[in-house]
């Protein structure tokens, strides 16, 4: 029996079962989503003390809340009494405390147990010890990032470092002042595909000429199929006749005040592992957060961020939103077309990556190392 050697221009992908096997997804929940810094909520979505949002991080339900001192806190959304979920709503606000709907154990906004039926008759119960279990939380770029690990990895290395590695320095993203931007539009997508297919799609532009006609009109170099985000410091330049990052290439808004001249008329894409995409253009930022919920389903929450003046003035952002909304729909449809084939015998040993996609191999190596650790 003879075998055909794979040509040097092609390298192998992950086998198909990595995208369909619940056991692989369980490993990813434990060793990726629960062990790394995971971006969960825009800080401004929790404006006042008592504002909360419930999010799924790996296998855990996490409660993110604005405390009375104005800071954000995160806790496992589990009552310490009998394990009922404290909050069943996805978001909302409480006045002073969270009360478990099962037996009325009550916790303040810092997670301390403050009341329960007959608690005064149990003087040996430490109200701090039996408070909600805290989760590590950091704020950066106007978002809250949490980590469930007992000893979290370095935020500076893993999160800030990913941005620095792409842009060359952290000052380059600081110029966009993401903390001060306002959500002009938010769209949530329910994608019937494995989270890795979405990551891999975002990492390459071999498909851009095929499925992104509007994007390649604005960014002509993307039609050549290379991934600009993997060249340190490089931003894809707008076409000569393009005025703004809009669906028709027409005029957008004024450049964000801090954006440097060499960043003007350029698009930068950043992947922050495991589940964040950041897209920078001169007048706004598009920020994706992914929430993998099953081996074949991923919720993607996408924010279009503009200067406060643009949003508060009521200016129409629909033309700039529409460009990346179309890109998202085109990408997610491609991922959903791919997902069924991951269980095909034709893909049992995986597929191949052409030279402009070879960098995806580094993502595969990173993932397999984490899952084997």
From TrEMBL:
Keyword Secreted set for record: no
Keywords linked to the UniProt accession: 2Fe-2S, Iron, Iron-sulfur, Metal-binding, Oxidoreductase
Keyword Signal: no
A Pfam family reported for this protein in Swiss-Prot or TrEMBL: Rieske
Domain Rieske span(s) in chain numbering: 37-146
Cofactor(s), by name: Fe cation
GO function terms (MF aspect): 2 iron, 2 sulfur cluster binding; iron ion binding; monooxygenase activity; oxidoreductase activity, acting on paired donors, with incorporation or reduction of molecular oxygen
Protein name, UniProt field: Rieske 2Fe-2S family protein
Species for this entry: Geodermatophilus saharensis
Upper classification of the organism: Bacteria, Bacillati, Actinomycetota, Actinomycetes, Geodermatophilales
């Amino acid at each position: 029996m003879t075998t055909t050697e794979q040509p040097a221009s092609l390298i192998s992908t992950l086998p198909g079962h990595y995208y369909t096997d619940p056991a692989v997804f369980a490993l990813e929940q434990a060793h990726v989503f629960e062990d790394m810094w995971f971006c969960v909520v825009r800080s401004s979505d929790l404006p006042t003390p008592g504002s909360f949002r419930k999010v799924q991080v790996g296998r855990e339900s996490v409660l993110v809340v604005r405390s009375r001192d104005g800071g954000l806190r995160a806790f496992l959304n589990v009552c310490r009494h009998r394990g009922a979920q404290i909050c069943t709503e996805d978001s909302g606000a409480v006045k002073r405390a969270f009360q478990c709907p099962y037996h009325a154990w009550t916790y303040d906004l810092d997670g301390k147990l403050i009341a329960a039926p007959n608690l005064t008759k149990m003087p040996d119960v430490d109200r701090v010890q039996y408070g909600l279990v805290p989760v590590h939380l950091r704020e950066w770029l106007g978002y809250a990032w949490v980590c469930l690990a007992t000893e979290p990895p370095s935020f500076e290395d893993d999160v800030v470092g990913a941005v620095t590695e792409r842009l060359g320095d952290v000052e380059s993203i600081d110029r966009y002042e993401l903390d001060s931007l306002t959500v002009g539009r938010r769209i949530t997508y329910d994608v019937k595909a494995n989270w890795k297919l979405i990551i891999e799609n975002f990492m390459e532009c071999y498909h851009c000429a095929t499925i992104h006609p509007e994007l390649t009109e604005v960014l002509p170099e993307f039609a050549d199929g290379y991934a600009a985000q993997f060249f340190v410091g490089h931003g894809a330049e707008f076409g000569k006749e393009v005025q703004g990052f809009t669906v028709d290439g027409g005029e957008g808004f004024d450049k964000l005040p801090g954006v440097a001249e060499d960043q003007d008329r350029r698009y930068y894409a950043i992947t922050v592992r495991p589940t964040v995409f950041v897209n920078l253009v001169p007048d706004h930022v598009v920020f994706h957060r992914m929430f993998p919920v099953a081996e074949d389903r991923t919720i993607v929450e996408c924010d279009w961020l503009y200067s406060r003046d643009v949003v508060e003035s009521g200016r129409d952002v629909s033309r700039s939103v529409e460009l990346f909304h179309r890109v998202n729909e085109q990408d997610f449809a491609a991922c959903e077309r791919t997902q069924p084939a991951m269980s095909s015998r034709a893909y049992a040993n995986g597929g191949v990556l052409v030279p402009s996609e070879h960098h995806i191999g580094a993502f595969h190596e990173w993932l397999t190392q984490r899952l084997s650790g």
